[in-house]
Design a protein that fits this description.
Elements lengths: L7 H30 L8 H30 L13
Length: about 90
Amino acid sequence: MAKKKFTLEEIRQRQDLLRLDLDKKQRAMRTALDAMRTPPQRSAGFVQRFASHAQSTAYVIDAAILGFKLYRLLKGGKRKSAWGFRRR
């Protein structure tokens, strides 16, 4: 099976099409990245603000507990089960 030989003009047209496609994809990625970078809108209502603060507080407390558990595990102290009882 013989390979088709391309002319220089066909190669340049293909390069132009690929550049246009690449530019279009870069614009789409830039738009998506800008959308991700914009800060979220502030909650308007009291209940929404309260829920947002409660969620943030829960994340901080969860991270602190996880950090403390990792510290105890790495420190090598006496280990307890998940329920707080000492293992035998």
